[in-house]
Amino acid sequence: MGITPCAGRRLVIAATLSAGTAVASAWVDWSWVSLHPPGTEQSWVRGLDGSRQAGTVQVGGTGHAALWNGTAASWTDLHPPGAGPWGSTAYATADGQQVGYARFGGGPNQAGLWMGTADSWVSLHPAGAFLSEALDTNGAQQAGFAAIGGANRAGIWHGTSASWVNLHPGGAAESVAYAMTGAQQAGFARFGGNQHASIWSGTAASWVDLHPAGAVASGCFDTNGSQQVGWTRPGVQAHAAMWAGTADSWISLHPPGAQSSQANAVSPDGEHQVGQAVFPGSPFTRAVIWRGTADSWLDLHSVLPAEYYASYATSVFESDGLFYVGGYAIRDGIQEAILWVPEPASAVPLAAALLGVIGARRRVQSSDRPQVSA
Questions:
Q1: Among 107, 169, 113, 117, which residue's Cα sits nearest to residue 137?
Q2: Are the beta carbons of 329 and 38 closer than 8 angstroms?
Q3: Does 191 have pLDDT greater than 90?
């Protein structure tokens, strides 16, 4: 099922953008798509894979894990049998598999996976854990955390609760794996009260500290295997950041003039990063996209109708050089699932290829990233 952009307001990239704003050479137009299902209360897109979007829809005051295929009407309720009023969330989707958590009988969150239906739910909750959440999947493995011994511990699964592998670094007070691709996981470990951006390669011993010299705190929200994105905190406010596997490789994506920012996802080829920023004159967050530098930032929020006063870009999908971005926007206090769809500079047929959202399935997920930039 194709994605049909909403008619009306679009962002046209001005010809006067600086040469450093590489996005200008690739895209002229962005439009938007609402995935908010009619009759529901709130909704969020958290991850993308090909024509599929994963997230949450609030129904009767309860969050239900959700899966879409490009339109609001296409949403599938993944809320597991037995979860009742206690809630569930899907954070990511890849190769037909979704991951997240569900609650049963008023108990704590339990990590789990689905294969496109509510009845396909499989619990990943490790024995002895108090709570757990699966935050990403590559279709075969899952990454997230489990609370064991009074602390959140980063870990991975191979499709069953018994397959849990603890990634928690020695000496850390807490750790979480937000993302994975191939053999690499990304997230944070907490030392001495401060988060350190972190990556792993499948074992606790493989942990690499990405924390930049001089930063107060840092964290990773996504990885494509060679690049990682997230945030650093040089002072009070967070700044969007990108790494290439080492602490010394850190570069700032913080838009000039912004008060705070964070990067939530990176495309598989590393060309694009998405997230959000707050600018002077407004307390509200605006979805943004970058192309590898702070100066390349583009305001995706301005695509939306004026009644939306805040927005978040949580994820980005790539197919044959074309992209669409997932997230959510807020109006009247209601959060609504959103897709941003770019139109290529040169030809309508290329736009149609994107709007069909078919072909190669390369994806970038995003869990429900903590808002560190506000």
A1: 113
A2: no
A3: yes
